[in-house]
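I would like you to sit down with the pair of lines that follows and say whether tokens and residues agree.
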Amino acid sequence: MSTTLSQALADLAALEDPKARAVNERHGDAHGVNLSQMRALAKRIGADPELAGSLWASGDVAGQLLGILVAKPRALTADDLDRMVRATQSAKAHDWLVAYLVKKSAHAEELRVRWLDDADADARAAAWSLTSARVAKSPDGLDLEALLDRIERELAAAPAREQWAMNETLATIGIHHPAERDRAIAIGERLQVLADYPTPPNCTSPFAPLWIAEMVRRQG
């Protein structure tokens, strides 16, 4: 018997932990469900596109995350994904939507192009995440110099989520394309975006020049 929306939301509510919520809310995620427990719940439910759509439409942050986990990427049209990216209720939902559904969709490139110049900053952030993946895995056809031109113009003033994704593209260009590395590093040094980001010991800084240098060192 398939899980109903009300049952799924009740199961999520039963997993709610006030301490986890306090931590998550500091990172833009208004829910208190341990993600390992959420994944276990999703595994019990199994793939359920209808429930996924209802969970997404609920507007509940934990519900949206669970909806992503039980969705089928191939069942979603480009317009479905477009509507979803504009309705994300948390940073984690945005990240998971792009990573688990959009990137696995046959519509990923169509949406990347559509979203790059969108008026919605969350859509543009998704486009830059998709662009980073292309830069790393299938760069043929991309104008890397034009991407760097745009990053240089827009990175410093971009909204936070878009800035993070755009910065990832800058670093990815520098890491994977030696011919553009010096320029990517120079852009990062000049703009100083995320230069003071608090980075735990043994973690790589998101500051593009340091990120590039570390990843190139590991490649060597």
